[in-house]
Amino acid sequence: MAGPEIKAPAFREFPTVPKIQPDSMAHLKCYVASEKIQGELGFPGKLADNWQETHDAVIKRMGELLEKYRSLRVFMDACVHCGSCTDKCHFFIGTGDPKNMPVARQELLRSVYRRYFTPAGKMFPALVGARDLTREVLDEWYNYFWQCTECRRCSVFCPYGIDTAEVTMAARELLDIAGYGQKYSNEIIGKVHRVGNNLGLPGPALIDTLTGLEEDVKDDTGCDVRYPVDEKGAEVLLVTPSADFFAEPHIDSTIGYGKVFHAAGISWTFSSKASEAGNFGLFIGNYEQMRKIALRVREAALELGVKRIVVGECGHAWRAAYAFWNTLTGIGAGANDPFAVELQKQLDPRYKQPSHICEVTWDLIQQGRLKFDKEANDHRIITFHDSCNVARGSRMGDYPGGQFDIPRNIIRAVANKFVDMAPETIGEKTFCCGGGGGVLNDELIELRVKGALPRMEALKRVVDDHGVNFMALICAICKAQFTKVVPYYGFKSGMIGGVHQLVSTAIKLGNEQ
Amino acid sequence: MSLFFAILFYAASAILVAGLAAKIVGFARTPAPLNIPTTPAPTTPAGVVFRMFREVVFFESLFKGNLWIWAMGAMFHFGLALVLVRHLRYFTEPVWTWVAIAQPFGMYAGFLMAAGLAGLWARRFLVERIRYISTASDHLMLALLLVIALTGLGMKFLMHTDIVAVKAFFLGLMRFDIQSLPVHVGLYIHLFCVAALMIVFPFSKLLHAPGVFFSPTRNQADNPREVRHLAPWAAQLEKN
């Protein structure tokens, strides 16, 4: 992209709270969605010529959202400005822009809420910090609510559990209703509806890619590991982010998924209809879009007659699948519409529906059905990055925190050298990669580089102290973001990879020649 | 003056109860359409109760977030809780035993409360980023509470008032039989600010008190694969 060269912030010897630099990120704005992109999703194509019209539509929608979402309603009222969140956001730490402090970001919306929906804001706006919705306010929302990765780190530290992701989602919904959508996310949602995945990869191209992959794996291992598409009657439907089909290093994990199923003797398939696990409906906070995207998976599962639904390495996709699929579409237990009932009959109740690929692999390892040559990973000293949506929005296994243990257990089972980053930067306190939530676009590269600072500092420490040369992940967006930004911090892109890439390296396929 | 305070307290009580009830009903009636607990979250309702207990009594998340804010916030809130318990003696006859036992603790808790408030307020001036997020009402709220704490302490330790008469006034209020209040500037300021606090409660950030119980990130169990969370408005979508 054109423009000034982006410089990464310097590593700090003792990470401290940055000095505030008001409006230091006010210049950053991602491309606005075209009328066509907006129209495909049923949103207004552009801002109305008459501001009053836009103003009224946004305020009306805000009232509706306050009736629909308890989270928003409580979060608008409950904040006391205590400041616990102020130094927790990677974007504030990296940029110093005070509007990237979660409380201040939320205030951009809350100030308008107060003005129109509370007696205090109607009568004493200056006293309580309430303001009219103006064109300038809408622009400010566009800037700063697209400088949030919805990573929820702030919600961990809030005494009332106020979750900026929920506020950001509401604000983005309001922007869409105003005809002020973001090009990157809304274009992707259009593609998933039109073609079946976020990257716009049509079915034949998908099959072609996977056939090529089978040949590559055959060349490497001598084994006929299969990467099937649309195979009726397979036991497992694997839904993975479409980046896993060709991007580097994502494809290495895809190879690993196939090897796991091959070694365990489980039949499986991709679906050309649901060739995408990512659900950008989450990023724009639109329930209907999220549901529509999720329904593809239910339809594919029914058509293919699978017994299990498994999700590949993707953070927000896993949150959408784990936490929302059941509610949105009845994939899980307890739904009673005709399609969901049929699906329940079809799915195997012995397995959690849906399952994460790490849950599947870890179960197989515990059952002794997978064998590894751990030394094959000895050239790697590995650390693990907890991806936000897995760490703070979803779970694996049977107990709270299983999402932290299971991927680490797998790594320890397939490799000898593993070391964790500092405790205050992993688990539920993990730092965002800086690229999630719909900000993974070129326009925001400055933000993405600066927002990666806290994670890079933690990585730097284990690189220096333990010689770490590989950071394993289970999120497609983290992989794309890190491979792009780690060079700014003096690391090599090749040190980023998937957990199933490590599995792939060490797994014994049983029938090697 | 007694009549003025009588009317003020009837009005303040009515606004507090009605305003808070309206807010709580609003929170309770708004559906939570998706399961969004911040993990690692308990997987059972009993676990949720335990998490909420830790949150409300020990400010667990704030403890993780910032030790200074936690310490000052805890000083203020625990101080306030003990002071409120101590004040029950003005509303009960005979005074309940446990309230009587709490009296000496409540007395010194007043200092704790004032110190906590002073610390919280100092941050709003001294810490750059906290100054940035503070509004006029944040300052006013702290001022109000601090004046209440200081006038209360003043009446205990500096210029005593006739607390027997104060008690008679409040017991009278509760029977709609207005008694006379002692003439005492400190007492007047104290009571006026308390009434003001009661009135602003349902319209201000003090709503964090009921709000915390309704926060979906804290009050939901992490069980979405086992239990469906379908909001009524979302169920409508299924009919299409």
UniProtKB/TrEMBL annotation, chain A:
All copies of domain 4Fe-4S ferredoxin-type, residue ranges: 70-99, 138-168
SUPFAM superfamilies per record: alpha-helical ferredoxin (SSF46548)
Alphabetized Pfam families for the sequence: CCG, Fer4_8
Record keyword Metal-binding present: yes
Family annotation (InterPro entries): 4Fe4S_Fe-S-bd (IPR017896), 4Fe4S_Fe_S_CS (IPR017900), Cys_rich_dom (IPR004017), Helical_ferredxn (IPR009051)
Single GO MF annotation: oxidoreductase activity
Keyword terms: 4Fe-4S, Electron transport, Iron, Iron-sulfur, Metal-binding, Transport
Name of the protein described by the UniProt record: (Fe-S)-binding protein
Organism of this sequence: Candidatus Nitricoxidivorans perseverans
UniProtKB/TrEMBL annotation, chain B:
Family annotation (InterPro entries): NarG-like_domain, NarG-like_sf
The UniProt record lists the keyword Secreted: no
Claim: DNA-binding is one of the keywords in the record: no
Superkingdom of the source species: Bacteria
Alphabetic keyword roster: Cell membrane, Membrane, Oxidoreductase, Transmembrane, Transmembrane helix
Annotated compartments: Cell membrane
GO molecular function annotations of the record: oxidoreductase activity
Main subcellular location of this protein, as a coarse class: membrane
Membrane topology, from the record: Multi-pass membrane protein
GO cellular component: a single term: plasma membrane
Regions crossing the membrane: 67-85, 97-120, 140-159, 180-203
A Pfam match: Nitrate_red_gam
Domain NarG-like residues, every copy: 73-209
Protein's recorded name: Respiratory nitrate reductase subunit gamma
Species, as recorded: Candidatus Nitricoxidivorans perseverans
